[in-house]
Amino acid sequence: MRPDDLRQSATEYARGEVARGLLTCAMIVSGTAEYLHGEGDPADRYALAWEIVPRELTAHLDAQAEWPARTDSDRLTDAFRALDITGIVAREDFACCQSCGSSEIGDEVTKGAPARGYVFYHGQDAERAAQGGTLWLAYGSFDEQIDAAQVGEEVVAALRGEGLEVDWTGDAAQRIHVRLHWAKRRYGRMAAFPVGAEPGRTVHVQFVPGRQMIIPPMSVSALAALELPWLPDDTSVRVDDGERTVTIWRERHRLISDDGRQVGRFEGLRLLGGQDEGEVPGEAGLIEVTYQCMPSGPQQVAGRPMCLPEILAVVRRLPTRTDSWLAAVHDAGIVQMRLENGKLWLESPFVAESASVGKYASLDETERTLTILATENRNAIRELDGVTTQPW
């Protein structure tokens, strides 16, 4: 492939993955280099990916600053959540293709929460929509008493109820066509990228425990920008630049090295470069989050810092009938939730009282409680109407 064609192909791939909104900068760099597999030297492919991906992320963040407060992608998520609550299993970006999605969607139904139907769009659908196309939805029935067309009618009604434009003839053999402008926002770790050119040589990076995702070859500046601020709370990273080795872990808003130095979580370059630690800035609103989209969706089993918009986006995408859960840990307390049979149980544990305080809450109550935790640095769970105390 000619150099210009190679660059164009890599740019189109990276742009689509940035828009799709599933992967971090480092993951997209890895994917872009793999997409170009067989085209020249691996080091050159990674260098090209490191040049292209941050630029595409910059363009995406500039564009999203001009988007309306509620995008078509938000409307789609809200429609899917409403359908999921009522017993139609609704999954976004589910499986790689329609064949795999159709064979796997039944596994999303739990014994305690039977479902009458399903709707999903798969990874290839998401790729096309993220690249500027429209979206096609697959749907069907789990109940012999309900035909697929009835499920399709409910799906169309939910989509139109959120203000989306839908084309469907009513034929159960036809997928539902949604005319939308794909617009998924990026926040926090998903919006991070190294600023400026990539200085310095590549370093060897090893995460402990080893379940940490595989990252592409990167410099210390990229590592400090993309990984160190969001290290899981059970993970350390060993960095070897060929001259010295340092092990770093995160405790709340601090990064700590094995020689005892401490810096703020966005100042990892000081540790990697052997510099003095300086004053560690505080982060009053820092929230560490764990969550799991049961039974087979995304999960974060060790605490990572997340900003409020990130947290709210995850909450809106949690499956509502499969015991999915999320826990948000702040210095002011813990707010946690579990979604079961279409209802959301919201609570806070109080160790000194050996009890939890909570209620079945609305999405609005849940978002308001998390917002107060993040912005006012206090736990407002007791301020909700109808909370009960459950002794341990």
Automatic annotation (TrEMBL):
InterPro entries membership: DUF6891 (IPR054186)
One Pfam family in the UniProt entry: DUF6891
Domain DUF6891: from-to ranges: 5-186
Protein name in UniProt: DUF6891 domain-containing protein
Annotated organism of origin: Micromonospora zingiberis
